[in-house]
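User: For documentation purposes, I need each entry recorded in a consistent format: the amino acid sequence on its own, followed directly by the corresponding structure tokens. There are two entries in this batch. Please keep commentary to a minimum and don't merge the entries.

Assistant: Recorded as requested. Entry 1:
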Amino acid sequence: MNPQDVEHSVFVPIPVRGMRQFFLVNGQGFVRVRADSMLQNPCPWLCPDFGEHGIHGPLYTLRAAGKKKEISVRQLLRALGKPFSGVNRAWFRDVCTCVEQLNARYQNLWESRQSLNRMERESIARMLHKSANFGLRTCPWASGQMEGSALGADPVLGF
């Protein structure tokens, strides 16, 4: 499975009551967090759990807003009107590998976004500091407000 094909496929809200506003699913059985939540979530793609779940196969464990729900890949595909031909371990490995690659890419994007946000905050802080210093040097009334002394300032005109 190609991660780019999976990423650009059509996703619809997950057919699980109470989770539609948080998760999306595509026709191949991939589940991800909604796009508006991806900005806060560095790993938006979910990997199913292939434990001993009997005939239902792998399960997705969905956690959001204090709720926890489990849904099998079989139930997901049936709800989407897709045929379920069974899930084997090879499919599971392919899905997990694809999800790991997608999450690694989103983790890098998230870290770079955090870095840019930090640099932006620092530059704004420097700019505000410079403008405050400029006001202190050029306007005695402003420096009096900041330092407690208004020597040479005209209180009527403000400078």
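Entry 2:
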Amino acid sequence: MVQYAIFQNLSTSRNFTSQLENVYAAEMILNFFIPAFIFAWPSFVFYSVAYILPDDYIFLRCILLAILDLWIALLSILFLLFSSSLNC
């Protein structure tokens, strides 16, 4: 015979502190993702232009991918430096 665990009648939807924690988590995520989106859109532009260009423009494609790598490296350094001001 299988015994199942009996939980108390606690629901996260009824618990105010868990809802408040969810609000704080959502605010933290917004504080992080809005600057991340603002600073990351050039990398999407670099990659999409390098992807769209034909194979004849191999030098330009390599330059764009190098700029993409440089931009990602700069972003990783910037987010480490300014993470305290983002309240993450």
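Summary note for entry 2:
Residues 16-52 form the longest helix (37 residues).
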